[in-house]
Specification:
Helix content is 5%, strand content 68%. It contains 1 helix and 29 strands. It has a 17-stranded parallel β-barrel. The chain is mainly beta. The longest helix is centred in the N-terminal third of the chain and has 19 residues. The protein has a domain of 134 residues: Beta Barrel (Porin).
């Protein structure tokens, strides 16, 4: 009796499955509506091969010369010459020549020639020639030739692109781009870019690029211009290191090396950087010459109104027509200075400088001259 019941149950299940799933779940398709399996909400496709196919649900393998469209979810492998579209979740592998689209979450591997889109979360490996877009949390490796955009919070992994990476909320991991990395909230990890890095709320880690910005930072910023808005725990290394309390000051000074100089000093509580230029590296009786220089240093107060500072600097010298009289066409100097500065009033200070410098030629790497540096000038603002 038990055997009869089991046999009847199996037969009923087989009949139900046959009634529910046409063609045993095998869909050979030429075009929409021209296929061995009808399109309705009861159908599940296990194997699909065709030119262009539109199916309800896929659990298995789908390969199409042009495109594949799945109205609900896909679990398995989906390969198309042009595009793969899944209305719900995509779990597995999507490969296409142009684009892959998952209206829900994407878990697995998605590789396309142009664009990958996941309406919700993305988990795994996502690679495209142009752009990747995910609407929710994204964990894994996401790479594109142009841009990656992820919208969800608590995303993590590796983002790399030729132009820009954009994370709408928080992100943990590595962001690498040719131009710009932007995180709307907190970034925990490292941002590397050819132009700029931006952390809208907090940075825990590092930023390396020409321009770096963070509201609050714990870690480091390395670039030409580094800026934090509220708080910094760590260090900044760049030509200009700034925050809202940074004083931008004008320096006018002269000396025995470069005779007349003008510079901008970016001064924080202790550290400062100086960018400037000068003229007449040689004597006034010689032909015109000009210099540009960068210095970075540390300032300490001695008493009311009086401070001492020390800095290291690099100077580039253009000799212009002096090269016709034995001077190198261009050379550089490495310099160290100690400065005493007295605050005359709120917007003006006077300083004197003593130091030592060595200048060398670029090509032959030989010492051109060396000696003591003596300078004096004023600081405005």
């Amino acid at each position: 009796m038990k055997q009869y019941l089991l046999t009847a149950a199996f037969f009923m299940a087989a009949v139900g499955l046959s009634a529910q799933n046409k063609s045993a779940g095998i869909n050979l398709s030429v075009w929409k509506g021209v296929a061995t399996q009808p399109l309705d909400s009861q159908q599940t496709t296990y194997v699909n091969v065709g030119l262009y196919s539109k199916m309800n649900r896929v659990k298995g393998f789908s390969a199409n010369a042009l495109a594949s469209v799945v109205e609900q979810e896909m679990t398995g492998i989906q390969v198309s010459g042009l595009s793969n579209v899944v209305g719900g979740r995509a779990n597995g592998i999507q490969l296409s020549g142009l684009c892959n689209v998952a209206g829900g979450s994407l878990t697995g591997v998605s590789v396309s020639g142009l664009v990958n889109v996941a309406g919700r979360d993305g988990q795994g490996l996502i690679l495209s020639g142009l752009t990747n877009v995910t609407g929710g949390q994204t964990n894994g490796v996401v790479g594109s030739g142009l841009m990656n955009v992820i919208g969800g919070s608590h995303s993590s992994g590796v983002l790399f692109s030729g132009i820009s990476n954009i994370a709408g909320e928080s992100y943990s991991g590595l962001m690498v781009s040719g131009l710009l990395n932007l995180c709307g909230e907190d970034i925990t990890g490292l941002q590397l870019s050819g132009i700029g890095n931006f952390a809208g709320r907090g940075l825990k880690g590092g930023q390396v690029g020409l321009f770096n910005f963070a509201t609050k930072a714990q870690g480091f910023q390395i670039g030409l211009i580094n800026y934090y808005h509220k708080q910094m725990t760590g260090f900044q290394l760049g030509l200009v290191n700034a925050n809202p309390d940074t004083r931008v000051q004008l320096m006018l000074f002269g000396g025995n090396r470069t005779k007349m100089n003008i510079a901008a000093r970016f001064k924080n509580e202790r550290f400062y950087t100086i960018l400037g230029g000068g003229t007449h590296y040689f004597d006034f009786s010689d032909k015109f010459s000009a210099t540009t220089f960068y210095r970075a240093g540390l300032s300490l107060p001695l008493c009311k109104g009086l401070s001492i500072s020390g800095d290291l600097g690099y100077q580039h010298i253009e000799s212009f027509k002096n090269k016709d009289h034995g001077a190198p066409a261009r050379f550089y100097a490495l310099q160290a200075r100690t400065n005493l500065e007295y605050q005359l009033n709120k917007s003006c200070a006077a300083f004197v400088t003593g130091g030592y410098g060595v200048s060398r030629t670029y090509n032959q790497s030989r010492t051109y001259d060396k000696g003591v540096i003596v300078e004096a000038g004023i600081v405005l603002f």
